[in-house]
Design brief:
By secondary structure, the protein is of the alpha+beta class. The chain has helices spanning 41-51, 56-67, 75-83, 111-117, 120-138, 147-152, 156-184, 218-243, 249-268, 277-286, 291-306, 322-354, 374-399; strands at residues 2-6, 12-14, 18-22, 25-30, 35-39, 87-90, 93-94, 105-107, 189-196, 199-205, 404-408. The chain binds zinc ion.
Amino acid sequence: MSLVSLDCDDRLGLYPLVFTKDRDKVIVGVPGRARFISTSSTGAEAIRLLQKGLSLREATDELRRTTGSDTISLRPLLRQAVSSGFVASVNGESLPEIPCDAHGWPVHLPVRLANGLFSRYSAFAYGLLIVFAAAVALTGGWRIPSLSEIVMGAKYAQLAWLTALIGLANSLKHELAHCAAAARAGVAARIGIGHRFVFPVIQADLTDLWTVAPARRYLVYSAGMLSDLAVLAAAVIVAWATAAAGRQNSLRLVLGVTFFVALSQIVWQFNAFVRTDVYFILTNAIGQRNLHSDALRAIAGVLKRCLPAGRGQRPRIVRASKAAWIYAGAAAAGYAICTLWTLYFVVTSLHTLAAPLTQPSGVGGRRPAIVLDASDRLAMGVGLACWGGLVGASVWREKTRKRVSLKLAEGEAF
Ligand SMILES: [Zn+2]
């Protein structure tokens, strides 16, 4: 961790910053480096003064003069600005560069392609596709296969590899849809691998979306789900069109898996407690950008209060908004359910993997519900290893992220 010391006559060199009005706040950041802070209009003005080359003392005096408040202090803002990597130099001396916070690989989609994908004509075509698919499904033109029909229609390994392949392709397409919508809004995006709680995910880093007005963010947030809806509709229409041509079991299996993969991708987005697309739509709508971290702080505060108090000092309850408390309740329930489900899934999978290949048969012999052969177990083993490896790598990368800390001269008037 680097340490920066500042006193009141220091002048800061800041990276080129972008200021975006967001309701009663101003979002200030360095686009391309995924570093943004939310501040008041006075805070934004303070950053502008520092950008003009005023020293910390001069900027503080100027702010106190223009606002008529003698209590204004730059200290909290400076802590945010330095730890967010806004400061490139102090008195002309360069600071060690903080690595870019954005995750993944940059995606450069041609703006013409992005504009075409989200044009009025495209919207009309997607609408037509979805209405047609709904008509096919509702009039009984194609019956959605049940999950058990799909599971019974294929070997475990075949189904596992097929689901993994289609799931991967659909996730990549989902994230590319976000990137295309971002490119249309003039924002750079990246695609990488991360995790949501215990689930590895392909994700689009859309941090630079903070440079766009709130109303223009909705299409970018929902583009992935809209693309899933289009895939789901296309699967229904192809299944309906090919069903008439006779029995095609393998195509039926592929379309059935595609349907459920696209559907589960949409349903997954409603797990707002792990910051999925619906979470960002929700926070943008209510204007609470840090709902998730506020809720986690609130949960941690409640847990601390439940622990035995040390020397009669009971931690005070964390102050959070009503929305953060409601979200905290939903998140606590969501995390608890996910933890139990994961434990159950891992234990039963390991139990299946450890069971002998040849099962005792005959009357009185105990057989597990599903007997898997060697290729099935290989698919399950690879799946579990990839899951653990990806989540582990993602957590490790977050923990080893470089940070900068700030040391401010005590007693100075800034
Ligand atoms: Zn998404």
